Amino acid sequence: MQFRLLVLAVGTFVINTGSYLVAGVLPAIAEHVGVPVTTAGQLVTVHALTYAISAPVLSTVVGRWERRKLLWLSLALFVVGNIATALAPDFGTLTAARVLGALGASLFTPTAVVIAADLVPLDRRGRAVSMVLGGLTLATVIGVPLGVLLEESVGYQGLFWMIAGLGVLASTALLALPPVPAPPAMRLGERISVLRNRAVVWVLVVSMLASLADFAAYTYASPMLSALTGAGAGTLGVLLFVYGVAGAMGNAVVGRITDRFGSGVGIAGSLLLLTAGLMFLPLAGGSLPATGALLVLWGLGGWGIMPAVQHRLISATPSGAAVVIAFNSSALYLGMGLGGITGGAVAAQWGWWALGPASAVVAVLALALFWRMPTTAPEREAVPAQHEVGGADGPRAARSTGGSPDPRLRGAAEGA
Length: 416
Prior knowledge:
single chain; mainly alpha; 17 helices; globular; membrane; DHA1 family purine base/nucleoside efflux pump-like MFS transporter; cell membrane
């Protein structure tokens, strides 16, 4: 079971390394295609908005596909998109290549997350989701910092050739997964029906705002940190590595906190850390240790919130888990896309120093909305199994069904 989760995590790592790498090499891309850095940043916006729109639509179009074939299709589109990115001679072609890669990426992560949640008992669901999303955070730990360091040697085009090769390897690793049959057909209208749940919509809005706050700054992290600290490529790679390690730690720790104390603690705590890390960036005064400490807070909060949000959504709609996770992926990428637009506008108007505080304001808004979120009965079901009557081995524990979580979730996972 752990190995299957690892395979899903590897695929998530590859997909998201290709997605986030653009942010790390924006200056090089801008110079090659002859556009300002803030214009090149819109490549992140285009990729993210394509993902946000296509995730629920494509999951309906290919809803009858066997799940492993769906993951293969996703990686195939992703590989072609990254090859096209490496070969693109101008900004227009480069934009089209990012759209193609985003179409593939939008199919992978929602499916992987729900299958992961289906593979484990209920009381370990948060940790399973964290493990798969750990591939996403490791993309920021390894992918982006390494890309910044290697770009001077191989060029950004060489980096995207490497990502395409990793996509082929990830496709091969999927052979370790058993075939997962498609569920009964579900129309787009039926999928959208989960949005009638007010609590679900509320969580999705908070998730989108948290992503916007994170990526308004992260999209332009390289030029922003360079302007604030005077750091060169090597030091920038180290700073981005610090941020990524903190993100991986936040993802793992908040997953466990969510299993133990509930998603509310994980969401609120993550938003507070995100706010603090972004708000005080300009006050670091160019000090690398102080900047590194703030990047730790930023990474812990920005990535720690993800497993808590996923857990809350699955708990609120267990029978529609696959659909609501796909909508959350759309919310995350919508926030990422709006973050690219917002960050570019803030930097153009007020300069790089303003990005952190402006992003922190959005995180505060997300926290305020979360505090006003209505308490729902389904959320109370998210209490870890060891705190329920009968304990971890009681009748409601997943182990009593042969290690499978709620059968409703199994059906949903097959519908991802």
